[in-house]
């Protein structure tokens, strides 16, 4: 049974501003100011109106407000997946900042599929969101630019904009992968495998490029030293399967770099299943440094990417795009990665250390 306060005095399904004004003994304009411009209302009056709202179970009609303002208070977040812990942490940062600004977040996943991404973008447009944060599933930004051309602000997430015409927030993944590779080369590894993601994903391409750059910089031949296995999904089971392929070779790798920590978790499981010691037989590096990386046995060396602060910064850029002030310009923000060395590459590491920023 709904409580008595859930209906207005005239029997409407829910109380509206007129009902609140009548009970509080103020004008409808005062109620509107309490909702939208509380700084214009005397504190005592504001408190009285808010008390009546609570008593009556008043809920703001967001749809009507959106019609008046000409835009919704909803933004879209379209990420590559909502299963992995990295984007979950990023989404938390986005949601927190958007909530502070009075926006509701609509979360979608492309599952790294360009066609799914296209459908999700269309649905977000149909819902009339005020803006979209997107981690693109491909380097082809035609769909994104189409959305922008129709008036919906878009900020690229986890992929740098190729030009100054868009806002983006990304991490220097070429540098991150190069740092991981340099660490392995310093330890004497000369057969390094990369368990990587699909070709069309920018992050996978950047990790490959960083590995190749580090090997070439060391004066070594990429073709002789590096082997790559591309997995269709960035999940633990694919990492375990890839390890089975790699370790069955005549000359298996002595070190494995993984596209993310979930894949590294599966790789670790696969190595243990074959009786191989990590790092004594095979060194292992993940990417993202999610929460579970430090509690694995051995603890996982990983390239740390910012998560919560990354999401907040992206949200701030989108808010600026939604309501641009005087002198607003598109920004391309690039966060720096950090290599966190743990026991999966260095048996002397009972704890954790940060590698030099190379």
Compact description:
The protein is built from 13 helices and 13 strands.
Task: Report what the structure shows.
Keywords: DNA-binding, Transcription, Transcription regulation. Residues 15-69 form the HTH lacI-type domain. Pfam families: LacI (PF00356), Peripla_BP_3 (PF13377). This is LacI family DNA-binding transcriptional regulator. InterPro entries: HTH_LacI, LacI/GalR-like_sensor, Lambda_DNA-bd_dom_sf, Peripla_BP_I. This protein is of the alpha/beta class and 358 residues long. The protein has three domains: 17-68, lambda repressor-like DNA-binding domains (434 Repressor (Amino-terminal Domain), Orthogonal Bundle), CATH 1.10.260; 73-170 and 307-335, Response regulator (Rossmann fold, 3-Layer(aba) Sandwich), CATH 3.40.50.2300; 173-306 and 340-349, Rossmann fold (3-Layer(aba) Sandwich). It is 42% helix and 16% strand. The chain has helices at 17-24, 28-36, 43-56, 62-69, 85-100, 114-126, 142-149, 173-186, 202-217, 222-225, 236-247, 261-273, 308-322, and strands at 74-79, 104-109, 131-134, 154-157, 167-171, 192-196, 226-230, 255-258, 283-288, 301-304, 332-335, 338-341, 353-354. Helix 1 (17-24) packs across helix 3 (43-56) and helix 8 crosses helix 9 (202-217). The chain is elongated and about 85 Å long. The N and C termini lie far apart (65 Å). Residues 1-7 have low confidence and may be disordered.
